[in-house]
Amino acid sequence: MKSIHEPKDLAINGAPPAFEQPLHVGRPNIGSREAFLKHVENIFEHRWLSNNGPLMQELEQRVADHHNVKHCVAMCNGTLALEIAIRALGLEGEVIVPSFTFIATAHALHWQAITPVFADIDPATHNLDPAAVRRMITPRTSGIIGVHLWGRGAPVDELQAVADDHGLKLMFDAAHAFGCSYKGKMIGNFGACEVLSFHATKFFNTFEGGAIVTNNDELAETARLMRNFGFAAIDEVVHPGTNGKMIEVAAAMGLVNLDALDSVIAANRCNQQAYREALAGLPGISLLSHDESERNNYQYVVMEVGEKCPVSRDRIIEALHAENIRARKYFWPGCHRMQPYRELFPHAGMLLPNTQRVADRVVVLPTGTTIDNDAISDVAAVIRVLVNG
Ligand SMILES: *Cc1c(COP(=O)(O)O)cnc(C)c1O
User: How confident is the model at residue 325, as a pLDDT?
Assistant: First the structure.
């Protein structure tokens, strides 16, 4: 790594990149390879590859215990888990969601001929603004999907109050919030159900995977049926369904990654702190903070480039990329400005001023177990030299 002290040291000004190997956002966190390979040997030994296998059942139990919730129904990915949750809950017509989220939150509805209606966010937390949700309710609205963005609990109580006032169903996309809490209670216990993602880039991964977590027995049972074509027993199909099953090799990855969670949290937390110190005092640059009274996974280092910053967000991203630091815009330009929603709702942005502002400010920085404090100093040095020009 080279040291960056002044503009002439920056790769965008012709110097060599700071990193030979790129630093990525969302580089997977991987537990013990040895333990994983042992599981794989066992899977071959028993020739039980999928269909409610023993490793998947163990993973479901452990994920449920970890979140203090009654049921965990594991799935092949988070998006399918969302789709099944939406269907099991009987959502229809219109469902209110944030636009500042991963596109899957909206697509899971559209895929089932349900209209996602985008509500604005609170710029301080990036989570849904309950007052904005209230404004988007129409006679066709059947529910709300809150998203615990960056792992921070959405305003659950306020959203529940809106849902109760209007007879709406409430569920959560908790793809970012594995192992997090809200008001001291673990994520997984809110709304009718919550959906986790175990995608490779998430805090906890099973290569690809996801789950519905809920305390509702009936909903869990319906989700289990839907996950396996509606089979209640051999030759007995009692429900419409699809194939949402998690395979054993994915569950094996989950089991070893569960054992490594504490070290991932420790690394992420240490990285957050290092970034915070290294970026302190730069004009217009701020890091989204965590509520230390809650459990956090610290998976996302979210930097905002405000108006007081002398260089633009896009210029910072360009300079970081030139150094092989693959920082990313996130949820830019917002679901409402992606297809098909952009064409379906060309004026949605008029009611989403905070979403558009935040989407234009955010840079997510690389973190995780593969990055050390030296690397973070270099990332920060690039930003500092750019900003101080
Ligand atoms: C990752 C993610 C999903 C989709 O999960 P997959 O497991 O990748 O299908 C849904 N919603 C949000 C907010 C996500 O970040």
Answer: 96
